[in-house]
Amino acid sequence: MLTLHADSRGRALVVQGEWVTAAGPLEEVRAAHPRARVRAWPGILTPGLVNLYGNELLEEAYHPDPREADELGTEPLTGDALAMLALDDARWGASARRGVQRMLAHGTVAVACGPVRNRAVQDAVRRTGLGVVGRTGRPQGRASLDPYACGAPVEFAPERDAGSAARFAVFDVRDETELAERGAATCVATVLAGRLLYRRR
């Protein structure tokens, strides 16, 4: 099935399976694909973000289950707080899955990582289809689910031209300037391999 994704600026792209088959002004794209299902989004379509802190957020932090909020809070636990948990593989895997979901909720479509040694983290990333970009050393700045809050330059995945992989995000802002000001928590949708993996309720 063809799905046409349109933003409030009149930009659109068509997704079939895992691929973008067309991109451009909404009226032109709609005219060329009259039978496509239409998803009209508030805000802007972007290529999706690359979070530079894959190891720090998925392999060196524990993302508490909502049922643990009273005891552990809701923010990722690191350092001594993490060491006190003595996590087994099952809890590492659940944490990594929650961490990936929280990244998706910030428009992340890929993470930059050094070697990932934790098998449970590897599996969580692989099963979601989150892209992985190699890196050497640790990036500067503070690890955060919101790439705009890290203090490091924000990186986007490649553009979503026709023939490219369908991985992109939608942010409920007027333009890229407002996105930089308000941050990635404005994400309303994230698509990976043509699948809508996050949608704000």
Walk me through this protein's architecture.
- With 201 residues, the chain is α/β, with parallel strands linked by helices.
- The protein folds into 2 domains: 2-47 and 159-199, Urease, subunit C, domain 1, CATH 2.30.40; 49-149, no CATH class.
- It is 27% helix and 27% strand.
- The protein has 7 helices and 12 strands.
- The protein has helices spanning 26-32, 54-58, 69-72, 79-83, 89-104, 119-128, 176-182, and strands spanning 2-6, 11-16, 19-25, 37-40, 44-46, 49-51, 108-113, 131-134, 155-156, 168-171, 187-192, 195-199.
- The strands form 3 sheets. It has a 4-stranded mixed β-sheet with strand order 3-2-1-4. A 4-stranded antiparallel β-sheet has the order 5-10-11-12, with no helix packed on it.
- A hairpin with a 2-residue loop joins strand 2 (11-16) and strand 3.
- The longest helix is centred in the middle third of the chain and has 16 residues, at 89-104.
- The radius of gyration is 18 Å and the shape is elongated.
